[in-house]
Amino acid sequence: MIQSTLECPKCHSTMDRGYTLDQSHAAIFTGQWVQGTPKRSLMDLFGGFLIKSPNQKNRIPFGAYRCQSCGFLEFYAREEFRPKW
Ligand SMILES: [Zn+2]
Predict the structure, then answer these.
(1) Contact 26, 2 (CB under 8 A)
(2) Tens of pLDDT, residues 28-55
(3) Where are the alpha helices (DSSP H) in 1-85?
(4) Those residues with Cβ within 8 angstroms of residue 60's Cβ, 6 or more apart along the chain or in another chain
(5) Predicted pLDDT at 68
(6) What is the number of H-type helices and E-type strands within the chain?
(7) Residue 73 CA to ligand 1 centre (angstroms)
(8) How far, in Å, is the centroid of ligand 1 from the Cα of 21?
(9) Dist. CA 4–CA 25, nearest whole Å
(10) Consecutive H or E run containing 21
(11) How many angstroms is it from 7 CA to the middle of ligand 1?
(12) How far apart are CA 79 and CA 34, in angstroms?
């Protein structure tokens, strides 16, 4: 079950649930965690930052909690963070 708030492990203030944005030219995504090491794409013209698309079944969406006081971020990769309709 997703909690809407957590207690900050650094300063003990309230942390709010949120997510990160991953934006391209035509789409906006939420962050996804992938096990292993990224593989560089053969199409990479950007100095090693363009990677092969990992298999969909190996991707796990992640959510982030942000402390209202100190800004500390804590991430959790779980299926329950997958965007809903
Ligand atoms: Zn804090």
Answers:
(1) no
(2) 988 999 999 988 888 888 777 788 989 8
(3) none
(4) 32, 33, 34, 77, 78, 79
(5) 98
(6) 0, 7
(7) 9
(8) 22
(9) 31
(10) strand 21-23
(11) 8
(12) 12
Residue 2 has pLDDT above 80, yes or no: no
pTM: 0.80
Spell out the domain ranges in the chain: 1-27+51-85
Structure token pair of residue 56: 């969909």
Q: How far is the CA of 8 from the centre of ligand 1 (A)?
A: 5
Tokens of 52: 């092969």
Strand partners, 27: none
pLDDT score of 74: 97
Is the pLDDT score of 25 beyond 90? no
Q: What's the maximum distance between 2 C-alpha atoms anywhere in the chain?
A: 46
pLDDT of residue 85 exceeding 70, the answer is yes
